[in-house]
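Deliverable D5.2: sample structural annotation.
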Amino acid sequence: MEMQATDLSARLLATENLTVVRSNVGTASFDIKSRVLTLPMRKDMTPVIEDMLVGHEVGHALYTGEKYAEPILKNPKMKSYLNVLEDVRIEKLIKRKYPGLRKRMNEGYAQLNEREIGRAHV
């Protein structure tokens, strides 16, 4: 499969040769052990949303360590709570490291919010 510009961006931002895959999944993810960044294949994916997802998942690549899962293994009910806190933490750090991502990520979240508002009014 041919490498896309987004794949190269993810590798450069993460400062490692991580693997970027596109799959028929509901959301983007990053596997901290195998170092695989998965992006969803969606017809309505805009470059802005893809950049926002890459920025977020690269945040996990840079700042989420393997110890993150330890409390979840002890108490699986903590997963949603810890995930929200970790997402906020890594986004703050990635935007601090790469200030240019701020605008793109804000635009991506705005696009997602507009879609959700549009669906609610249908």
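Annotation notes: The mean pLDDT is 90. The radius of gyration is 15 Å.
The annotation will be released with the project's public dataset once the embargo ends.
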